[in-house]
Structures are given as C-alpha cells and as structure tokens.
Amino acid sequence: MKLKTSLYSRRKFLNGLLAGGLGSLVASLLYPLLRSVIPPYKEPDEVRLPGADFNGLEPGDVRPFAWDIKPGFIKKNSDGTFTAFVGVCTHLDCNVSYVPAEKKFFCACHDGWYDADGRNIAGPPPTPLRRLTVVAEGAELVIRKETPA
Ligand code: FES
C-alpha cells in the first residue's frame, strides 16, 4: 500500500539529519574536555575488613571481598596466613570468578583459567592474577597494594 502523503516532509528529514550531525559533532568535541576534567579511576591503597569474617575459613578456602569497585579474593593458606588477589583478569580486564569445585579462578570472557594461587594456567591470560598484601591488625584484616620490587 502506498501512502498518498508522506509523514515527514523533505525539510523535516533534512533538519533531523542536520541536528543529529551537529549533536554528534558537539558530543565528540565535549568528550575530551569531560575526560580531562573528570579524574581517572584510582584504586585504593588499602581496604580494611573485619577479621571475624575470615576466621572460619579452612585452609584452601577462598572468599570474595570488594577491592573498592573491583572484585577481590582472599585465600586462607595452609600455614594460617592469607593471600589476596585482585579479581580482574590480566588479559583484558574482565572480572574473574572462583570455581570451588575445581579450586580455580575462571574468566568467562575468553575462557581463561588461573590456579588457586592465581597463576595463569590456561587460555589467553598472559600473567598471574595481581596479588595484594594481607596483614592482620587487631580485629581487622588490612589488604594493601603490593608495591612492585
Ligand atoms: S579477559 Fe579474561 S581471558 Fe580474556
């Protein structure tokens, strides 16, 4: 079925095209300005967690925690100490999850695998998960960024 009259006039169509183009141009000019004004994400220097939340862990158990806006994992070692990892894949920064049945970390983005100590064992991740330092201070666990040696 052919309409006798168009719903949009040629002028309306061209005005819409021009407005869309101008809007895109303004947005592309403003974006770098906004990026320079808004500071980039800076991860925390440390996170403090109640130690009582982790006292019940058995050696080898892994529990997630929030490393600011990113996931983190704490693993209880056989000697009673803790090891912490940032739960961000070293391939392309996807979040990893812990698979208790396999005792491994898994990145679903490209089928990347890490062992329970955070070492990259399969898939594309080029390096191990980033480690964090865990120190018990009173009733708290303090998790800090490891400084590169
Ligand atoms: S981002 Fe994790 S395997 Fe690619």
Written account of the structure:
This protein has two helices and ten strands, in the order αβαβββββββββ. By secondary structure, it is an alpha+beta fold. The strands form two sheets. It has a six-stranded antiparallel sheet. The chain starts with 9 loop residues before the first helix and ends with a strand. The structure holds FE2/S2 (inorganic) cluster.
CATH architecture tag of the largest domain? 3-layer Sandwich
If you consult CATH, what is the topology of the largest domain? Rieske Iron-sulfur Protein
Overall body shape: elongated
Instruction: Give the CA-CA distance, first to last residue.
Output: 74 Å
Number of alpha- plus pi-helical segments: 2
Q: Could you list the spans in which at least 5 consecutive residues all have pLDDT below 50?
A: none
Number of strand segments: 10
> Tell me about the biggest sheet?
6 strands, antiparallel
CATH class group of the largest domain: Mainly Beta
Strand order of the largest sheet: 1-10-9-4-3-2
